[in-house]
From TrEMBL:
One of its GO terms (biological process) is lipopolysaccharide transport. InterPro entries: LipoPS_assembly_LptD, LptD, LptD_2, LptD_C. HAMAP family: LPS_assembly_LptD. Belongs to the LptD family. It comes from the Bacteria. This is LPS-assembly protein LptD. Residues 332-752 form the LptD C-terminal domain. Keywords: Cell outer membrane, Membrane, Signal. Involved in the assembly of lipopolysaccharide (LPS) at the surface of the outer membrane. One of its GO terms (cellular component) is transporter complex. It holds the Pfam family LptD_2. It comes from Bradyrhizobium nanningense. Residues 221-293 form the LPS-assembly protein LptD central domain. The gene is lptD. The keyword Membrane applies.
Length: 828
């Protein structure tokens, strides 16, 4: 008679807590065996690959509750209707609603048996395992040796945390290394809610999927890709690294290159090389029909405190004559660029960017790096490549940045591009009050040089007759009436230090008084080369200057608050008085960093409205305005600002003509400035409207106007920006500029989206750029097509080219994304 010790059966589930020893060791082996089964499911955790220029992306997946973190205390909890110990046959059985919990992993089954003689684990009936990461494994029968080297699982199904799914009729494991999935199916699509048995949008089937654990590779045999259950692609054999491998050497998806008439058509075949855990490389030969093989390589390494990368390009051109008369007319062409950044601690980082090319047309001719056109209708490509070395530190209320910069001109005008060595910025706000107020200070140091002057035409005659070139002998050539001096030739060094203090008081009437004071000092040394025309703008030779600008002022605000049942309104008159001496050396020193000047409501109350340190605002000034803010109880707000600036005494810095006419035509170059206004209205989270304008102080003619509106609904969104800018002849803008930029998208069905955007030049009365697209998007599949027109800018002085491109995109989540572009270009 077989001796069996049977536990009592009752309406309550029996609960047993064990440690990993004795009988508990057997059950622990069971848990780890099922964990091994779960690892089969992990094979489908394939990383997604998304192109950098993807127009459409997958719908976001619904969030899954994150499982609570379990303590790894090696304690096991077993729940079952009964637990049997068969000493004669050396078997331990858990029967009826078996549940095991161990280190964050739970296992459920109808029956679990461990045979100590054969050292086999057997589980059957509705097996469900949930690991600590949220992956769920289902099976009907599982049988494994206790060392997990051999065994099988029937009716396997796995749901992963990233909502991918895999199933197989059977999985066999042998030699502790090989796992074979019979009749495997994989998909990243959710099952149909109405009919879960219905085939998903796409799935991959394989007669056999073999996992080599030692090589960490997956081998697929007789695989096919199905859409809605219909096979569309067949692959007799292919292999891929298993999901435990984050990086694996091998070929990546090839790409087609449309090329140009000078380079010919081509194809790229990238090869990825996983050198070590902390470094890798990508080698990408591009085979071109006319010029031969362009080799591209990228090396990357991540260190404990940062990372860096190096790209290199090179080609031995088969037909250099295709670039006759251009810098590319040479046999060998190449380039190298690199960048890196490293942390010194939690507050300091240093890094670099570097670019070196055989000729400045190389990136443009072969559409490399910055000249790879992303999917977008309004493309702005850089005109220079930046090389720099920098050190940056950020504190609680302080900032430091030091860098040296070298620009490599894509136009070939290298002598007109400055070299900065270095520029240093430091600012700090003290954490404690000084005289009861806030005290801050900042410094800036710059040293730069340029070999050749840069002139820009501002009249039609100067443009047509080339009066701003160094070769022109016309008496009007390179004069302030015809040209701007954008960049001076020579060397320029400036050290600036500024201290600021301010304190706010609120009197019993609710009026807010804010006195402020600042002291700024500039030490300047410039050496201007006496090149043709430069003396018309700046004193040539060596100039040393010391510029001191003390400033005191008072800002006054008196907010009036009106509370109504529907909300509240705050009306706040604002007045600001600034007292300071005239700007010294105004217009007589180089101006490199304060060339931009836009006067609007955003800088109405700025003490110094210049954008950089090379100019400093002087003279007495008053800024006045009124601001109103309305808040609605049911949501929404309206904010309005209107004001004007007055030159009280002294010289108006914005009326002084410098090398680039910085303040001329800005609206500030007169005793009473233009009126500036802004208004924004957000009734709810759906709509947003805003306007910004500047009106002439005498005629009220609009000098600058921008209006923007946005609406974002559940199924559609639209935005529109209108801009109108008056002529600024002193800056080279001879006619008014007007345009509309609009974009929108519409979800016409659950998963279908159409979108488009356009730019309309109202002065020329033509739509010069637009993009139209449509696509199908869900949680696992993307299919999209776009028609794009955009201006592409090449290196040198070549005018922009209007290109037309048709772009097609298809994506299978976790498997692959690909896009194809067919384009043509022509001058318009």
């Amino acid at each position: 008679m077989t001796a069996v010790r049977r536990g009592p059966v009752s309406r309550l589930t029996r609960r047993i807590v064990m440690r990993a020893n004795g009988c508990g060791w057997s059950i622990r082996r069971l848990v780890m065996a099922v964990a091994a089964v779960a690892s089969l499911g992990a094979l489908i955790d394939v990383a997604a690959v998304a192109p950098a220029s993807a127009q459409y992306t997958y719908n976001p997946l619904p969030p899954r509750p994150k499982p609570a973190k379990a303590a790894n205390d090696n304690q096991m909890l077993v729940q079952a209707t009964e637990v049997d110990y068969d000493y004669n046959n050396s078997r331990v059985s858990a029967v009826g609603n078996v549940q095991l919990f161990y280190n964050g992993t739970s296992v459920e089954a109808d029956r679990v048996i461990y045979d100590q003689k054969t050292k086999r684990l057997h589980a059957e009936g509705n097996i469900r395992m949930t690991d600590a990461d949220g992956k769920i494994t289902y099976a009907e029968i599982m049988d494994l040796s206790d060392d997990y080297r051999d065994g099988f699982v029937d009716s396997l199904r796995v749901d992963t945390a990233d909502q991918t799914r895999m199933a197989a009729s059977r999985a066999d494991r042998s030699s502790g290394n090989y796992t074979v999935f019979e009749n495997g199916v994989y998909t990243a699509c959710a099952p149909c809610r109405d009919d879960p048995k219905k085939p998903p949008l796409w799935q991959v089937k394989g007669a056999r999927i073999i996992h080599d654990q030692q090589e960490k590779m997956l081998y697929f045999e007789t695989a096919q890709l199905e859409f809605f259950g219909v096979p569309l692609a067949y692959m007799p054999y292919f292999s891929t690294p298993d999901p435990t491998v984050k990086r694996k050497s091998g070929f990546l998806m090839p790409g087609y290159i449309s090329g140009t008439t000078n380079t010919g058509y081509g194809v790229e075949v990238p090869y990825y090389w996983a050198i070590a855990p902390d470094m890798d490389a990508t080698i990408t030969p591009r085979f071109l029909s006319r010029q031969g093989v362009l080799l591209q390589g990228e090396f990357r390494q991540r260190l404990i405190d940062g990372a860096y990368q190096i790209r290199a390009y090179g080609i031995d051109q088969l037909d250099p004559g295709a670039f006759a008369g251009q810098p590319g007319d040479r046999q060998f062409r190449g380039a190298i660029d690199t960048k890196g950044q490293f942390a010194l601690n939690d507050k300091w980082v240093w890094g670099w960017d570097g670019v070196l090319m055989s000729d400045y047309y190389f990136f443009s001719d072969y559409r490399l790096y910055q000249y790879r056109d992303p999917l977008g209708s309004f493309l702005l490509l850089p005109t220079e490549a930046l090389s720099q070395l920098y050190l940056t530190g950020v504190g609680n209320r302080s900032f430091f940045d030091a860098r040296t910069m070298y620009w490599l001109s894509y136009s070939g005008n290298q002598s007109q591009v400055p070299i900065v060595y270095p520029v240093i910025d430091y600012s700090n706000v003290l954490n404690y009050p000084v005289f009861g107020g806030e005290f801050s200070y900042k410094t800036n140091f710059v040293n730069l040089s340029r070999d050749q002057a840069v002139f820009d035409p501002i009249t039609t005659i100067a443009n047509t007759n080339s009066l701003c070139t160094t070769a022109s002998a016309d008496p009007l050539a390179r004069t302030p009436s015809q040209c701007l001096l954008r960049g001076f030739p020579g060397t320029y060094t400036r050290l600036t230090a500024e201290a600021q203090w301010r304190k706010s008081f609120t009197d019993p009437l609710g009026q807010i008084w804010t006195p402020f004071a600042s002291l700024r000092a500039d030490a300047i040394n410039s050496s201007v080369s006496n090149q043709p025309g430069v003396s018309n703008y700046l004193p040539v030779g060596d100039t040393q200057a010391f510029r001191l600008m003390p400033t005191v002022g008072l800002e006054y605000r008196y907010p009036f608050i009106n509370i109504q049942p529907w909300g509240s309104t705050t009306v706040e008159p604002i007045a600001q008085i600034i007292i300071r001496p005239n700007e010294t050396y105004a217009g007589k020193l180089p101006n490199e960093d304060a060339q931009s000047m836009v006067f609007d409501a955003s800088n109405l109350f700025s003490v110094d409205k210049f954008s950089g340190y090379d100019r400093v605002e002087g003279g007495g000034r008053a800024n006045v305005g009124v601001q109103s803010t309305t808040q609605f109880d049911k949501g929404g707000a309206v904010k309005v600002l209107f004001g004007q600036s007055y030159q009280l005494f002294g010289m108006n810095s914005f009326a002084v003509q410098d090398t680039i006419n910085t303040g001329i035509n800005s609206g500030l170059d007169k005793p009473r400035s233009d009126y500036v206004a802004s208004a924004s209205y957000s009734p709810n989270s759906t709509y947003t409207f805003s306007i910004r304008s500047r009106m002439d102080e005498q005629t009220w003619n609009v000098q600058r106007f921008e209006a923007e509106g946005r609406a974002n609904f559940n199924r559609w969104s639209v935005s529109m920006l209108y801009g109108s800018y008056a002529a600024q002849p002193e800056l080279g803008y001879l006619t008014r500029r007007q345009g509309i930029l609009t974009s929108g998208s519409l979800k016409i069905a659950n998963n279908w989206v159409v979108s488009g955007s356009a730019r309309w030049d109202l002065e020329a009365n033509k739509i010069n750029q637009y993009v139209v697209g449509a696509g199908y998007v869900d949680d696992c599949f993307v299919l999209a097509a776009n028609y794009v027109t955009s201006y592409s800018y090449s290196a040198g002085t070549t005018p922009p080219v209007l290109s037309h491109a048709f772009m097609f995109q298809i994506g299978l989540r976790t498997l692959a994304n690909s896009s194809t572009t067919s384009s043509s270009s022509g001058l318009q």
